[in-house]
Amino acid sequence: MLEVRCLLRSVRFCSSAPFPRHKPSAKLSVRDALGAQNTSGERIKVQGWIRSVRSQKEVLFLHVNDGSSLESLQIVADSSLDSRELTFGSSVEIQGQLVKSPSKRQNVELKAEKIKIIGNCDAKAFPIKYKERHPLEYLRQYPHFRCRTNVLGSILRIRSEATAAIHSFFKDSGFVHIHTPIITSNDSEGAGELFQLEPSGKLKVPEENFFNVPAFLTVSGQLHLEVMSGAFTQVFTFGPTFRAENSQSRRHLAEFYMVEAEISFVNSLQDLMQVIEELFKATAMMVLSNCPEDVELCHKFIAPGQKDRLEHMLKNNFLIISYTEAVEILKQASQNFTFTPEVVFCVPDLSVAEAGVQWYKHGSLQIPLPRLTSVLPTQSPKYMGLQWGVNLQTEHEKYLVKHCGNIPVFIINYPLAIKPFYMRDNEDGPQHTVAAVDLLVPGVGELFGGGLREERYHFLEERLARSGLTEVYQWYLDLRRFGSVPHGGFGMGFERYLQCILGVDNIKDVIPFPRFPHSCLL
Q1: Mean per-residue pLDDT, 500-514
Q2: Torsions phi, psi for 242 (to 5 deg)
C-alpha cells in the first residue's frame, strides 16, 4: 500500500500537465497604461503615489501618479477597499483590470481588485498640500519633497528630455562624447572663482597637496576638450561645473551643468554660430515634440506668453552684430542703466602681470583686471568716455535682445583686453578685438559663449608671457607645437537654456538640488 502511494506521488510531480494558475498582472507605468490600446479588461499592476482621493458610498476614486507623465491614472474601486491610510501622498500598489473609461476626461481607467498600501503619508503634516498651487519660492524650502509637485515634476521630465535631445544632436552630428574631469588644476576662465579641494580628516597633511599641486572643482571642460580636439575633429562634454561666485542672483548657481563642444579645422565664427543655432533649435523642437503636456503646464502657469515667445525664436534666423555695434546701440538707448556701457578704465604705468591679480571697483561697477592681456594706455586713473572696452552686463544683454525684436542675437568680436588668453587675435585696429562670440537670448541674456582658439604658437606664447602664465600652461603651448589646427568651440549653461525655453525666472527652479551661497540643502 505504501509503495502504491509513493508511485502515485511520483507520477503527480513528474506529470507534464501544468497546474492551473492565474496569469500574473503585467506591470505598467502610468504613462504606458494611459496610452494602452487594449482596454478589454487586461489585468495590470501599477505602483505610485496617490494624488487625490474621493470616497463615495459605493465607489472609491483614486488618482495615482508614478512620475512617468503629468497625467495621473484614475483608479475605480469598490468602497470595501477604502482605508483611512489611503491619503494624498501615500504610496500604493494596485492590481486590477484596465478598461475603457466612460468619462470624457480620460480614455482608460483601472478597475481595482487589490490595493496594497506601501508607505503611509500623514497628509496634514506633509508640507505639500492637495489642490494647492504652491509658489516656487515656497517649494525651494523643501528640496526633498518639491519633486512630487506637478510643476517640478514637469520641469524635471523636460530636463531629462532636453539632456537626451542634446546627446542625440551631437551623436547625429558625428561628435564624440568626452568625459572631462571634475577635479582639475586649471582655471580656464581666468577669473579665480574656484572651489579648492583638500582631503578631510586623517588624510589631511599640513603643507602638502594631495595631488602635489593645488586642485579645484572644474569651472569648464574646455581646455580638456582642446586636448581631445587634437585627435578627434568634433568633441563635446556635458557635465557639472562649479563657480565660487558670491551671487544670489536669479541666473547664478555654485553648481550647474555645462554643454561644451570643440571643433577642429574651423576657420570662422560663422561655422561655430551655425552649430550653436542648430543645437538650440533642434533640442527645443525635440522637447516640444516629446513633452507637450509638461511644456504647456510651464507656459500656462509659470510664464504666460512664453509659448509665443519661444515660437518667435525658433522660426527666425538668429541675428549677428559686433561688440562695437552693440556698444553704439547701448549709447543711444533711452533706458537708464545701472552699469554705464560707455567707459573704460585706464591703468597708469601698470604692467599686465600686476593687473592680473585684482579687480578695479568704482561704486557698483567692477572691471575684471584679471583678464587683461594687453597694456592699456598710460593715463591718470579715471574713467574716460571712450565708449568701448568693458564687459556687457545682464541689463545690457537683455536690452540688446529686446532692441533686436526679441530674437536671439550673436555678439561677435569682443575687445581683446576683456577675454581670456586663448581667444584668437583678430589683428585689427585701432580697437583690438578677438574672435569671440556670445549668444544672447530673451529673458536670460548670455546663453552661449565661445570663439576661435589661438592656434598660432607665437601669438599664444606672447600672451601667456605677458600674463605670467607660461609655466602653468606649457602643456597648452605644446598642443600648438605638434600638429596644431585652427579650432574653436563654445559652452552653454544648461540651466539657463531651460530658463529660456520654459520662461522660468529663477535658475534655482530648473535644477533638482540648487547650490548657491549660504545654501547647500541635502
Answers
A1: 96
A2: -140, 135
Phi, psi angles (nearest 5°) of residue 17: -70, 125
DSSP 196: B
Alpha helices in 332-409 (DSSP H): 352-355, 394-403
Cβ neighbourhood burial of 52 (10 Å; 0-12, 13-18, 19+): middle
Rg of the chain on CA atoms, in Å: 30
Spatial distance between the Cα atoms of 354 and 25, rounded to a whole number of angstroms: 73
> Helices 306-315 & 269-290, crossing angle to 10 degrees?
140
Place of cell 496617490: 50
| Positive or negative: CA dihedral 353, 354, 357, 360 | negative
Q: CB 352: neighbour CB atoms within 10 A?
A: 19
CA distance 278 to 175: 14
Q: Mind listing the pLDDT tens digit for each residue in 418-439?
A: 999 999 999 998 889 999 999 9
Place of cell 535682445: 401
Backbone CA torsion sign across 330, 331, 334, 340: positive
- The residues with which 41 forms a beta bridge, in sequence order, are none
Q: Distance between CA 112 and CA 61 in Å, rounded?
A: 10
Sheet holding 319-322, edge to edge: 176-177, 234-242, 255-264, 487-493, 445-452, 433-441, 409-415, 319-322
Sign of CA dihedral 496, 502, 505, 510: negative
Whether residue 20 is preceded by a cis peptide bond, meaning omega within 30 degrees of 0, is no
* Strand 409-415 versus strand 433-441 pairing type: antiparallel
**What digits encode the pLDDT tens for the residues 44-91?**
999 999 999 999 888 999 999 999 999 999 999 998 888 889 999 999
Select from 115, 130, 129 the least CA-distant residue to 84. 115
Give the residues across from 322 on adjacent strands.
Answer: 412
Cβ atoms within 10 Å of 253's Cβ, excluding its own: 23
* Residues near 18 by beta carbon (within 8 Å), at least 6 away in sequence: none
- Asked if omega into 430 is within 30° of 0 (cis), the reply is yes
Whole-angstrom distance, CA of residue 124 vs CA of residue 147? 19
The secondary structure element, H or E, covering residue 327 is: helix 323-331
Query: How many other C-beta atoms lie within 10 A of the C-beta of residue 82?
Result: 16
Q: Which residues pair with 63 in a beta bridge?
A: 52, 74
- In this prediction, residue 211 has a pLDDT band, given cuts at 50, 70 and 90, of confident
Outline where 25-101 has alpha helix (H).
30-34
Q: Which helix (H) or strand (E) holds 139?
A: helix 136-139
